[in-house]
Amino acid sequence: MALSLRRKQLDVIVRMLHLNQQQLPNGGEGQGEEEAYKLLVMDPPCVSLLSPVLKVGDLRRHGVTLTLGIDRPRQAVPDAPAVYLVRPTPSNVDRIAADAAAGLYASFHVNFSTSVPRPVLERLATACAAAPPACAGRVARVADQYIDFVCLEEGLFSLAQPRAYVALNDPAAADADITSLVDAVALGLFCVFATLGVVPVIRCARGGPAEMVAAALDARLRDHLLAKPNLFTEAASAAVASFQRPVLCLFDRNFELSVGVQHDWSYRPLVHDVLGLKLNKLKLPAEKYELDDSDKFWVINSWSPFPKVAEEIEAQLAKYKQDVDEVNQRTGGGSGVEFDGTDLIGNTRHLMNAVNSLPELTERKKIIDKHTNIATALLGHIKERSLDGYCDCENDMLVNGTVDRNTLLSLLRGKGTKEDKLRLAVTYLLSFETPPSSELEQVEAALRESEVDMSAFQYVKRIKALNTQFAAASGTTTKSNIVDWAEKLYGQSLGAVTAGVKNLLSDGRQLALTRTVEALMEGKPSPEVDDYLLFDPRAPRSGTGGQFKGPFREAVVFMIGGGNYIEYRSLMELEQRTQPSKHVIYGATEILSGAEFIHQLAELGQKAGLGGGSSNIPPD
């Protein structure tokens, strides 16, 4: 039985929509005969977490007739109950108390997306107590739901915490700000494991944000486990019976920087990077599309290289036309042929089959048209920006460790956005430990010719140089001085920045992240992970003995500072090729495109006083 994050989050949401009944009508499939229709009131973050798992039709099936924003003016519907799903903030509880005092709805079922701090809960209680007597009576229930994460699909989630990479690496960041962000990430991960109903074994590299988040999550889980019963009590016996505990592998974005900026040639990463896929929704100038597991073409083809996707669209269109012609031939009669009774019955049967096949044919045509439009839009960008050239050049550098200087420089001076050129240049920087100085100068000159802001490039160049110095330093004092300097200038986590192609990619394009996760799941001694820290919230604090290091059948891999579809695909491939089979869920503080991540690097470069070039990269 594999961990099923999306299914379990959906179960919690459905129960909430049915007013937290333990026995749901129709097994949770839809509206019961006796159940009242209701309104759903949410804040923007909760709209984001709900939209990938429930569509408007699904909400109606669960009795929700109207979905409203908590920050918008709303009319009273005094005879209907209202379900609130919001983050536990002072402004949200003030609005809830005001709504209850005004009697906007018949009853108030208040659900917080995560653990509500005691001062916020007391604020709600005080406001309701100060209101007219009927106010408190209208609040039927207040519940913590622990679903404050966006589950994009069964194996992919985001904590929707923007710009975490900048916040953690900002040289001017206050300790209190970093601690606050680390606590927010730990709370988001606590929600994930509370929803799954399992307590993980936590592994991470020493130092930097990964260790800080691991320690904060370990402390939060330990504190929670002291209470009996707790969120993990019910699932504990089932977990022992059905599967062992999972391992949570925590990484910092600096662990493998190049994956965050590189271009990719697969359909799904291209749609995300080039067309701006967000929350499984795609907005083109003339159309809006949903791209999720209800779209079988997307499920089957989204990891294929773009040219293969184009071929598959052509093949499906040809098959569709053939099937339509076949239906027309069967139902169009036989010209010049006399029918007896048998032929008439046969023809009627063909007609009935044709009528029955119409919905399926219509749906197929709709999917074909949808992906034709998406592929056409992609093709326009590919031609306009020479994206195939960028992908080939980066692939040569990252996988083969080679670069054709003329190709590299012509791309930097030719087609493509400023972000494209900067991403290529940063990939070049990260692919070679010591690129020839003359070649490096030519790359920088080409960027300046194209009026590209150099902040991101100079930032990566500087932290790579610091990392090389750190690796080369022999004396403890020198190492300490370099680390202190790095931390003062560039933030907390620079010791983890990798440099050189050996650490970035290896056999079969397997990412360093995937290699490390595989080693952590196997639990065998390995130079790559022997110095990784282990936190076990269920083990006594003092003892080091008896800690379980694997093997693990299931893992949650979390990237602090932004994840991407390239890493997600690599981990899915790990699942598919291992025997016995492993199950991996991938999550991140946010899912970023290469262009979005390069903006964060540029912002850090500017904060550190680096940069140059005659034109800034425009913000998103």
TrEMBL record:
Q: What is this protein called?
A: SEC1 family transport protein SLY1
Gene3D superfamilies assigned to the protein according to its UniProt record, in alphabetical order: 1.25.40.60, 3.40.50.1910, 3.40.50.2060, Syntaxin Binding Protein 1, Chain A, domain 2
Checking InterPro entries in the record gives:
Sec-1-like_dom1, Sec-1-like_dom3a, Sec1-like, Sec1-like_dom2, Sec1-like_sf
Name the family: Belongs to the STXBP/unc-18/SEC1 family.
